[in-house]
Amino acid sequence: MTDFVAACRRAIGAQHVLTEEADTAPYLLDRRGRFTGAACAVVRPASTEEVAAIVRLCNEFDVPIVPQGGNTGLVLGGIPDRSGKAVVLSLQRMECIRAIDTVNNTMTVEAGCILQRVQQTAADARRLFPLSLAAEGSCTIGGNLSSNAGGTAVLRYGNSRELCLGLEVVTPQGEIWNGLRGLRKDNTGYDLRDLYIGAEGTLGIITAAVLKLFPQPKAQRTALAALHSPADALRLLTLVQRQCDATLTGFELMSGFCLELVVRHFPQTPLPFNTPYPYYALLELSDHESEMHAAELLDAAIDQAHEQGIVHDAVTAHSLAQSQQLWALRERIPLAQAAEGRNVKHDISLPISRIADFIDATGSELQQSYPGLRPVIFGHLGDGNLHYNIAQPASESDTWLLPHQDAITRIVHDSVHRFDGSISAEHGLGSMKRDEILRYKSPVEMKLMRTIKQALDPRNLMNPGKVV
Amino acid sequence: MTDFVAACRRAIGAQHVLTEEADTAPYLLDRRGRFTGAACAVVRPASTEEVAAIVRLCNEFDVPIVPQGGNTGLVLGGIPDRSGKAVVLSLQRMECIRAIDTVNNTMTVEAGCILQRVQQTAADARRLFPLSLAAEGSCTIGGNLSSNAGGTAVLRYGNSRELCLGLEVVTPQGEIWNGLRGLRKDNTGYDLRDLYIGAEGTLGIITAAVLKLFPQPKAQRTALAALHSPADALRLLTLVQRQCDATLTGFELMSGFCLELVVRHFPQTPLPFNTPYPYYALLELSDHESEMHAAELLDAAIDQAHEQGIVHDAVTAHSLAQSQQLWALRERIPLAQAAEGRNVKHDISLPISRIADFIDATGSELQQSYPGLRPVIFGHLGDGNLHYNIAQPASESDTWLLPHQDAITRIVHDSVHRFDGSISAEHGLGSMKRDEILRYKSPVEMKLMRTIKQALDPRNLMNPGKVV
């Protein structure tokens, strides 16, 4: 192993090969603090050629590779196991924005670019890069693509997959595939790009990407609607989509209990209604005409929903500050939940039409097994993506959850499966859900995935123990 | 071979296994009449299980399989070679619309459904399935997906790839993969769906798909703008996209020579301007508010382009009939070209920002080698997709082209490659461009593609001789 480390030092410079515990610790610790891995070294190459050189050394010395971006993943996809055999390959020094093309509406960036910087660079050129998520200040675009990150603008702009036109990848053999195309149409063979996107670094290392840009909206408008049920939220979604089409860029569902928690732990964020309601929807329009047009469009849709008895009360933001206040209700849910204590988290997706029935059926099933259990339901309803979290019964302390969490997850995931949903909507599988998925994927699908893995990475050096 | 045919007859019924020349001929003839293949039989299974049964028989008897939809492909992707060893597997009897879900905005259809029927079924449910192309009356959705078809609405809605959420596929071993998910987010492993889409039947047979639906627009508005150059067309595109965003659903470029041909061969379609211009752009807005809103939006954009000296003249359609008249100018280009005689066709794409320079550079190069050659340039400028066709010099008859066509294509494709474009934007590779692509794809990319093919179809039974 010392030979391998020495060879890495020669390849990319000694100062970029970390082996001291104090230096490597941040790369080995899961961001949520649930797990610490071990590695023979953390290497920080600065170029695609250096990444390829390291991968070739890993082949020579038979060293497994764990690619890592901003280390903000939620499923242990970028953390090595505890054997200490693997090397962590951090892409953080590959942070060059290689090109921006405002006519083609594309930007070519290296994998280690922080998402927020990508957004800002686009904005400086009067363009929108729409990917947006909680970790945007520290996650990297390479990690976003490797995990096919979702976020809050998927309804209008799609997941990371839909925001990428081309990739540069270092293969498990240390070769460089230059697929950095900025084309909207290209039917010349197999879609390698989409195979690497979402593969969580198990098929190769994404080193650069061509991203799609969009015209910046001229105005944004936010509203909070009070609802009686998830079924009404679905009716509202259909109505607003029909009237506003692509202008609707956000549609978030929140249960009454979510906002009860937010108001309890963040008294500076009051509920803008006199009485609480069972459910709320947060709507956002992004308009390319004017503030006034956005306001008219949103008001008309909400008025109509009011008349049809779908919406019982609603507030619309009349300023950026008011809009941020409404979004704060949504964004503070995870923090409020953490302040309340432990909870069991699930990142699930469902056919949108089945969400209301799923919430009913799963809630009943959980209550039957664990009377008093409190679901904390929120998420991107427009994409069918729920964060379906579970808090202990009000009468118990949160340690009550510990012995029950696996059984609770089993009930939730089995129900997701019955409703034709997915047990990982936007977080990936990593090593955390790698066994769990075997319960739900067909043997045919698992075999296809393993066949591809075996063909592209026959020595199983790329992020072993993750995904498949 | 008679054993194989007999086994097929037992598996799916004798009347669905065609061997008489009169019966098989339509399946063996390329739609443009350039090639006739041979097959031991044409089989027409009616269900996924029957498709799987046939594929298992092909494995048993070592018979290559050529899947076929509506046989409207342009690159010989669905026609067998002349050896007569292969079986043509037609999906035409698999034409069930399995489900439609207007809340999830999805439709589950079998591969043999004609595209126009899919569009109509969506429209009957007040939804839009936006894929639209010249062959829509006879092409099938399975073929559209296998070739990742593009068409006229890509600018707003994407290629076939972006319009599909899930697939059902029969593998080369005759197993059935049920990936018929109707989910907007699902990060549970490798993206098998996008691997089969665009693979032209070389990795498996798509038997059914979950398609995305959209709200129907309330109004459409069409305009024709007269321009001096492709560079001005790009300026117009940027301006209209900034003001109209997703409302802009079509942006077609046409050279003056294209419309000269249309007017010559279709005198009933006059040019709506007093003088001809070097270039034209056809714009289409699809609006979810009202006719009036669409008109205001389009007029404002064109007025502004006028003021900036980008647009020199423009007409806007004030009725459906007028709109169809404008679209007829675009749609009749291929027919007018055919009436004028032979031509050398190229289906190319480029980064949008490089199109003007590409047209200049390629035109000069062609003129240098072949003075008087007449490019017929039109296409989906908003997607960077040009149909860059070539007619003989005006002084020659069209047989002049025959000895020169390969050299002309070489100049065009080499230029496309220099400008970072693709030599097949929306038609695929088939067997026609299978060798051509070797000039332009890197050895690394070809190796990756062959590795995947070899892994998933080790016996090379699936559409051999196509793509890789």
Automatic annotation (TrEMBL), chains A, B:
**What InterPro entries does UniProt report for this protein, alphabetically?**
FAD-bd_oxidored_4_C (IPR004113), FAD-bd_PCMH (IPR016166), FAD-bd_PCMH-like_sf (IPR036318), FAD-bd_PCMH_sub1 (IPR016167), FAD-bd_PCMH_sub2 (IPR016169), FAD-linked_Oxase-like_C (IPR016164), FAD-oxidored/transferase_4 (IPR051264), Oxid_FAD_bind_N (IPR006094)
The molecular function terms in GO held by this entry are: catalytic activity; FAD binding
PROSITE patterns reported in the protein's UniProt record: FAD_PCMH
Q: Which cofactor does it need?
A: FAD
Looking up SUPFAM superfamilies in the UniProt record yields:
FAD-binding/transporter-associated domain-like, FAD-linked oxidases, C-terminal domain
What Pfam families does the annotation carry? FAD-oxidase_C, FAD_binding_4
Tell me the keywords, alphabetical order: FAD, Flavoprotein
A biological process (GO) of this protein is: respiratory electron transport chain
Q: Which family does it belong to?
A: Belongs to the FAD-binding oxidoreductase/transferase type 4 family.
The name under which this protein is listed is: D-2-hydroxyacid dehydrogenase
